[in-house]
Design a protein that fits this description.
Radius of gyration of chain A: 44 Å
Helix content of chain A: 40-55%
Shape of chain B: globular
Number of strands of chain A: 16
Number of helices of chain A: 21
Largest interface: A-B, 52 and 59 residues
Strand content of chain B: under 5%
Structural class of chain B: mainly alpha
Number of helices of chain B: 11
Structural class of chain A: alpha+beta
Helix content of chain B: 55-70%
Strand order of the largest sheet of chain A: 1-2-3-5-4
Largest sheet of chain A: 5 strands, antiparallel
Number of strands of chain B: 0
Distance between the termini of chain A: 119 Å
Oligomer: heterodimer
């Protein structure tokens, strides 16, 4: 035999067949031979289904040569004495139902303890099976639902409530026509809600039951079917069940909000608030479908599985949104804070630098004349900021950056709002909304923190509170602007938008706060080594700020070409005999035994001693003079011994 | 359906020389010659001789007629045939060239050339010839079920729909959206999906029937399906295990 097809992978087919082999029946349904023995007028072909309550066989009615489905109820049900009577009464009512959308009942009865119904055979599939092949398009769903409604209304008009509307009980034939199966059978399972619940549990899910069926209030009427119909409608459109605070169908399927209203009203907890008749549901659905109920949004992609819309992607979206928000907001905060910090320090720094420069000019003039500087000492500049930056960057920059961020946010916001209004682009609107929130929130937060840094009246607690509230308001408002879309994962948690916005605001507060703190720390405290020694050599590389912090303000400043030499007092009170050379705020050189306290003039050595004497005399101290054992000149001044060699100070000691 | 007797059980029950048993065996052989051919080829036999051996084996089996003594593999035609095929090869090696048994007789007409093409297309698995046999068997089962389904659809004049819906049989998503497919075939999406579902269900049934035909009445088709699947899973594991 020739094989008509190229080699294919046989695994899916084998797997599929194996899975169907494995469906375990919950009870022992009669075998084909047993059924054949009891129903000689039928040719039993196959068992085609088995549920918790009944088994179904495909048969041929010999006399009519017509296919039919024989539904045999679980034998133990028939053991209850009143059950058979009730079954026969119900079945008789069902047999009266002749409607194109209701599965016809050919025969019914009880035979040797088996209650059976002989019903129309539908060569088709139920809605559950159809959904398993991929979500139905909204058009198709809205074409099928009115047929369900028509069948239901017909039965309701005759006083028959289905009580178990669910996708498994809605059959579709090869022409695409709906047939409702199993009318009233759920009631036969017991009549009381307790039994009903148990039966439904056996069937698989109680999600289709109306609340009053659950509660067992006893007043279950046709409006319970309307509830179940709402669940089926929702599931057909979205691929999932309306549990908890469910998303309106229009958020994840291309249907109009008219359908949202139908679903919402059908799913009201109180029967009084639901539609009172199925025909009302039908009318609304048909109206929504006709009036462009199916919106322009993209149809389900080919090959789409029965993945409930946005469920799988839900958490991905949430995590992505949080990461995006945090990254962008903290990045902006980091940058803006740096600018704000520079700008706010800039003013005082510029003033100090100006003072220094004036003083240095005066010193230079005196030093050039070979005289000692006697005009006092400048206060240390407390920042290591490069003077050039402090000069050129003004407060305008962070201000401009903040305004820029707000502008970007505004533009994104407009885009987000527009995108979000298109039903299919809501997730995109959400993302753009998050993008819009980031610069806005980042800018606001950083200004608050910068204010807290700068203004002693504003504590971090106050700033934090303000930031939190502002974040919350901005995020919540943005969310509403972007049409309130939210990932289904969030919806299922049951959190309201307010709560979600609150949590997001808190997360942002922490993130931005941390960013700002790290920024400040990295800007100011560079030195993180062990406790500083007093020797200048160990200070190499330290910043000016560190030196000032450890050694106090400089006691002398000497100009040497383009460099400034600073003299410092050691921490222990002894004079530091090192000269620290700083370049752009950082110690680049440490020269031991340098003459620090005197300006070092070029060439004229003896004059130096005089100028030192004059300098010390100016400070009002006596100046005994002598020589030590090695021939160094020794000066005494102010309780301090100064040794000079060749008029260069080599040591300064406390007496 | 369960009270229908399978072909393999017919064969097993047949008394020696029983015509019904021989006919059933002939049918089965006709369905599953490819795994045997594949086995020989994987054992390094050249194409011409593999075809001869396959023919010879079937001729021998049908001639001999003592089918039921194929223990210990009574339950499954697959296992029986593999054992026989291995023995046959060993025996033919013994009498190598002495006399090509059945070499001239052409009991089955089969497309050895087509099978050669397939063999070339198949990725060369580094596995045992026995596993190649099992895999080819699984392919033959599925292909036959599918071929039968296609014949039925052709008879029912639904070829166009069958072609359009073939993807469901491969467990694939539709190439276009269901709505588009439905428009193309001038039907509704619901009706098309119903057709797809029915087709899939019938394919499943056909596959099970096909499998059941190779089993004794007391062997569950599920077990056989599981073994056929294991031929793939096992080989995949072996491949990855043997890799460097």
């Amino acid at each position: 035999m020739t094989q008509p097809r190229p080699p294919l992978d046989p695994r899916p087919a084998l797997h599929d067949a194996l899975q169907h082999q494995a469906t375990a029946p919950g009870w022992d349904a009669p075998g084909l031979a047993e059924i054949a023995a009891r129903f000689p007028e039928l040719l039993v072909e196959a068992r085609i289904g088995q549920g918790g309550m009944a088994a179904v066989y495909r048969v041929v009615q010999r006399k009519l040569d017509r296919h039919a489905a024989l539904k045999v109820l679980r034998p133990d049900l028939a053991r209850e004495p009143e059950f058979v009577g009730r079954f026969l009464r119900e079945a008789k009512a069902l047999a009266q139902l002749g409607h194109p959308h209701v599965l016809g009942v050919y025969d019914f009865g009880e035979r040797d303890g088996l209650c059976y119904l002989l019903v129309e055979y539908v060569d088709g599939a139920n809605l559950r099976e159809l959904m398993a092949l991929g979500r139905l398009s909204p058009e198709e769903a809205l074409r099928l639902v009115p047929q369900i409604c028509a069948g239901l209304q017909f039965a309701h008009d005759r006083g028959i409530v289905h009580r178990d509307i669910k996708p498994e009980n809605v059959l579709v034939d090869r022409q695409g026509h709906v047939k409702l199966a199993d009318f009233g059978l759920a009631k036969l399972a017991g009549g009381e809600a307790e039994h009903l619940t148990r039966a439904s549990m056996v069937f698989g899910t109680p999600h289709y039951m109306a609340p009053e069926q659950w509660r067992g209030s006893g007043n279950v009427d046709h409006r319970a079917d309307i509830y179940s119909l709402g669940v089926v409608l929702y599931e057909l459109l979205t691929g999932r069940l309306p549990v908890g605070t469910y998303e309106p169908p229009s958020k994840c399927a291309a249907v109009s909000d008219g359908i949202d209203r139908v679903v919402h009203r059908s799913l009201e907890q109180e029967p009084e608030r639901r539609y009172q008749q199925v025909r009302d549901v039908q009318r609304e659905v048909e109206r929504a479908a006709a009036a462009g109920g199916v919106s322009r949004a993209a149809p389900a992609a080919p090959g789409e599985k029965v993945v409930p819309c946005s469920t799988r992607r839900g958490w991905v979206a949430v995590v992505a949104a949080v990461l995006l928000l945090m990254t962008v907001a903290t990045g902006i905060a980091f940058f803006l804070h740096k600018q704000a910090w520079i700008a706010m320090r800039g003013h005082s720094v510029r003033r100090e630098v100006a003072q220094h420069e004036a003083m240095l000019d005066a010193m230079r003039a005196q030093v050039d004349e070979g005289q000692a500087w006697t005009g006092g000492l400048p206060a240390a500049i407390e920042t290591e900021l490069p003077v050039a930056i402090a000069r050129s960057w003004s407060v305008l920059l962070p201000l401009a950056a903040g305004v820029g961020a707000a502008m970007i946010a505004l533009v994104l916001l407009l885009v987000a709002g527009r995108t979000a209004r298109a039903a299919a682009s809501r997730p995109l609107g959400f993302v753009v909304g998050v993008l819009a929130a980031a610069p806005l929130v980042g800018a606001i937060d950083v200004w608050m923190f910068a204010l807290a840094d700068h203004d002693p009246g504003m504590t971090n607690v106050v700033a934090g509170t303000v930031v939190l509230v502002t974040n919350w308001v901005v995020l919540h408002w943005l969310w509403q602007r972007t049409a309130g879309w939210q990932p289904a994962a969030l919806v299922r948690t049951g959190a309201t938008p307010r709560v979600v916005a609150g949590v997001a605001a808190l997360v942002l507060l922490v993130a931005v706060g941390l960013a700002v703190r790290i920024d400040v720390d990295s800007g100011v405290k560079v030195w993180r080594g062990p406790s500083l020694p007093v020797g200048g050599a160990e200070l190499l590389g330290a910043t000016r700020a560190t030196v000032v912090e450890r050694l106090g303000p400089p006691v002398a400043i000497v100009v040497d070409g383009e460099r400034l030499h600073f003299g410092y007092r050691a921490l222990d009170g002894a004079w530091l005999a090192d000269a620290l050379v700083l370049h752009q705020g950082r110690v680049v050189q440490s020269s031991p035994h340098a003459s620090l306290l005197v300006p070092r003039a070029r060439g004229d050595g003896p004059a130096l001693g005089d100028s030192l004497a004059a300098w010390i005399a100016d400070r009002g101290a006596p100046m005994p003079r002598g020589a030590d054992e090695t021939g160094n000149t020794v000066w005494w001044a102010d309780g301090v011994r100064i040794r000079l060699h060749d008029d260069i100070v080599v040591a300064i000691e406390r007496k | 359906m369960t009270f229908l007797t399978t072909r393999w059980s017919l064969v097993m029950r047949a008394a020696d020389g029983d015509a019904g048993g021989r006919q059933a065996l002939g049918e089965l052989c006709e369905r599953y010659w490819q795994p045997v051919y594949r086995l020989y080829r994987r054992r390094g036999v050249d194409a011409e001789r593999a075809a001869d051996l396959t023919q010879g084996l079937f001729a021998h089996l049908l001639e001999r007629g003592d089918f039921a003594r194929a223990d210990p593999s009574r339950g499954r035609f697959r296992a029986y045939l593999r054992t026989c095929a291995e023995h046959w090869l060993a025996r033919q090696h013994e009498h190598d060239h002495a006399h090509k048994r059945g070499g001239g007789a052409r009991l089955l007409s089969f497309d050895a050339a087509g099978e050669e093409t397939r063999l070339r297309l198949e990725p060369s698995y580094p596995d045992e010839p026995a596993a190649a046999f099992e895999r080819r068997w699984a392919e033959a089962v599925v292909e036959r079920a599918r071929w039968r389904l296609e014949q039925e659809e052709r008879t029912a004049r639904r070829e166009r729909q069958f072609t359009a819906l073939a993807f469901v049989l491969d467990g694939q998503p539709p190439p276009r959206s269901w709505a588009d497919l439905a428009r193309e075939l001038e039907t509704t999406e619901g009706a098309l999906k119903v057709a797809a579902h029915r087709l899939k269900a019938r394919f499943r049934d056909a596959l099970c029937a096909e499998v059941r035909d190779t089993l004794a009445d007391d062997v569950a088709p599920g077990d056989e399906l599981r073994e056929l699947l294991a031929a793939f899973g096992g080989s995949a594991a072996a491949e990855s295990g043997e890799g460097p």
